[in-house]
Amino acid sequence: MRSEHQLGHRPGHRLGRRFGWLWAAYGTSALGTWLAFGAFPLIAIRVLHAGPAEVAALSSVGAAVGAAVAVPLGPWVEFRRKRPVLIAMDLVRFAALLTIPAAFALGALTFVQLLLVSVVVAAADITFRAASGAYLKTLLPAEDLLVANARFESTAWTTTIIGPPLGGAALGLLGPVATVVADAVSYLLSALGIRATGGHEPLPEHRGAARMRAGDLLDGWRYILADPALRPLFFNTALFNGLVMASEPLLAVLMLGRLGFTPWQYGIAFAAPSIGGLLGSRLARPLVTRFGQRQVLVVAGALRALWPVGLAFVGPGTGGLLLVMGIELGLIFCCGVFNPVYATYRLERTATDRVARTLSAWSVTTKASTALLTATWGVLGVLLGPRTAIGLAGLLLLATPLLLPRRAAAPLAEPEPAPSRV
Predict the structure, then answer these.
(1) How confident is the prediction for the chain on average, in pLDDT?
(2) Smallest Cα–Cα separation from 340: which of 385, 390, 293?
(3) What count of other Cβ atoms lies within 10 Å of the Cβ of residue 98?
(4) pLDDT in tens, 305-341
(5) Which domains, from first to last, does the chain contain?
(6) Are 180 and 101 in contact (CB under 8 A)?
(7) Interhelix angle 145-174/263-271, nearest 10 degrees
């Protein structure tokens, strides 16, 4: 067993004032996102009278184009101070989202504007995630990264539990445009929180040419594919996330259509099991202390793949509802354990001067693969039926543990600078 000192488990696990502001900013923006969950499709349907193809484009095309737009931003972020980038991306999302209620008030809102805003928000989100990972690695020493990522994961699941019900009430009382305003304001508050972190952040050293070349756009992927520990994990997460997300629309069609579940039953089937993510994230650090990082990563990553195939056997009535909730609880609990360990492992395996490019490439691939698999499974749902397509996704997920790291990774070849603590 590893010692408490080695893992940085000091009493109370105080990570400092600067991390506290960063954590608060993350929680604020996450809550805003969940408050506005489903707002764009509702605006498209109720306000703009959009059809199914247009609504699908908001999530698939918007995310895919946003990912493409974000590709050159990874290398650009790498050699800039990360805190100003984080603030800028929050302000970009704030301004983009605020154009929707402004256009709605003027009677000028269009579907094209909704699509453009979804692209801008998706690109800014990828860039923010890349910069935040790099910023976190310079803000905290390596032994505190798991504690920090577990707190982020816990906050994410907490906002998942409380956000949609509050957002649903706001949607009913005030309409979807009001929840978009709340989401926009959350990004403004996040920017203020990140600004409050303060401290001095040195300008990263640019080791290459003065200007970014076309080949630099692929640096993140080159780094991932060259690392024997990151490479399998990269393919594992892209495939796992894509297949899980691709099944969700089909499950909605199955439950709300053929099986006759009401919208509130469908909502509670996924909201209530989110408590599993909160519990799992709180257990991640003790499990790593007891069994070691790689062991927890592999076991939790394998266990999360076992659950989704059961969704193909969902039936009507209370029994079917309980089956969905039980499967989702098990899946989300395993993800709650896996995600902070995986995020920490990825940061530890990435050199400090490569973090932004690597995380950007990772996010772009995940979003693009999710969009592609969602479109593919939509076609399979038409050809084979939603239940068969869901079962096929579940069977493929059973193979994803083969892409988890099997051996202990060798240390990074280059030394890393000491993180700053203020």
Answers:
(1) 85
(2) 293
(3) 18
(4) 999 999 999 999 999 999 999 999 999 999 999 999 9
(5) 17-200 (1.20.1250.20), 218-409 (1.20.1250.20)
(6) yes
(7) 170
